[in-house]
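Forgive a beginner's question, but would it be possible to get any protein sequence you like and the tokens describing how it folds?
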Amino acid sequence: MRKKLRVAVLMGGNSPEYDISLMSGKEVLENLPSKYIGIPIVIPKYGNQWLKKLLKADADVCFIAMHGTFGEDGKIQGMLDTLGIKYTGSEVAASAVGMDKILFRKIMKAENLPIPKYLVVNKKNKKINLNLLGNPPYFVKPSNQGSSVGASIVKKRGDLRKALNLAFKFSDKVLIDEYVKGVEVTCVVLGNEDATALPVIEIIPQKGDFFDYKSKYAKSGALEIVPARISKNLIKAVQELSLKVHKTIGAKGFSRTDLILKENGDPVILEINTIPGLTPMSLLPKAAGAVGISYSNLLERIIKYAT
């Protein structure tokens, strides 16, 4: 048995979140405990030269630090399954469900979990009946992207087409959500069958009207308050709901569920992230740090959940 596990850190990929993935991967490599040997594997936007490097690396486990399409949607997971290589995070099915916002919503609805009212618009058939949603504002986003890529708030109906055209640049199917006004929170879950929820984080965007790409990754883009300034009962409700979402889709290792707390306090599930960001600005390490889990220890836990 090897004295040190060889950990191939996969980053990059054919995704609009390519640069963020490189940031996550770099952070993982710099903070891996000394008991591991870190091997960087940068996956370009095009080409498969990286695959030879991965096979040559003879890794015991792959740490997937990829966000968005190809990395977070089950594709790389399926490839690693075929190669017989262990990897961090969720397996194929849970990854695919987490990335497909339409399928995710259908599963949440089937489980009677709270979600916003929404419509699905197809790029080939753009007919829209807004009666279900009523008057604006609306929240428009691609059905299979992360980091709020292609997302926007529509404050008047005349701006809807512009928002749809932006979202269609990234996906052939787009969600139009009712705009849920309230406090935005997120909750990280760590573990597999014995998963536990970390402290709830309250998010207050500073760069835009919502927690968009710039708010997520720009310096001082958002105030992230942990623990969230909500009642203990509401914190417990959010944690229990996030655990239920994690287990319902079969997520493994770690996940982060984003929610809105309506003005009456009721939580509404927005989405789950099966590979949350691991950059210095990301919410996952911040939640872990709030309960005394250092970044290095967090990585060790994630690797152990995979091996």
